[in-house]
Design a protein that fits this description.
The protein is of the alpha/beta class. It has twelve helices and eight strands. It is globular, with a radius of gyration of 17 Å. The structure holds 2-phosphoglycolic acid.
Amino acid sequence: RKPIIAGNWKMYKTRDEVLSFVYAVNEKMPSNDLVDSVICSPALYLRDLVKRQGSNLRIGAQNVHFAEEGAYTGEIAPKMLVDAGVKYVIIGHSERRAMFNETDESVNKKIHAAFNHGITPILCVGEMLEHRENNQTETVIKEQIVKDLEGLTAEQVTELVIAYEPIWAIGTGKTATPEVADETCGFIRETVKELYGDVVSEAIRIQYGGSVKVNNIKELMAKPNIDGALIGGASLEADNFIYFVEAAIQE
Ligand code: PGA
């Protein structure tokens, strides 16, 4: 599986900072294409980034609406992302589920909408601390996967990227140990296998996300079930981002 490193910038950076980042990254980006590198920026900067992306950088959005178009004030339709040259979209991030009322049902609709427009979804799933402490991690994650993937074809699930992001590890500095991260990514792969069979589950790429830093990326990437990382805070610096891409190539 080709590793995939994605930066999730959340609601950070001014336009000047975005431009400095992309120039710096273009200069240092490895010239081989052994890894997919993606920056998911605030919607306002997507076109700026697409215009300047080097050959080994792709741009993703952090959200999309599921409708074709319509009276949805403040929302962005899938075809608008296509117009802007966006190739990926994060769907169902835990911050959106917790703060913007996203449900598995809306997440599922958004995944279908993205695929209908040729955009690759990065689906986020993950448990809360209390789930992990009460041994409910697998139940919670399985329920998310089953509902979020409903109605997708095997070809679509092969293309999909899943990011395993334990909620207790996001922005907290508490990374899941590489063993725990790998075990849960393995469980996600097993669940995909039950739903779609061997070939799809071996092909699908599963990222780990949650306090990934330069000092833990290598041990995470070395694990067999982890095919990449979705990185928040640490992806805001160009040098860090390049480090993550290089670590993904090496491991
Ligand atoms: P973090 O965020 O790397 O800052 O923990 C990860 C994410 O929310 O995708």
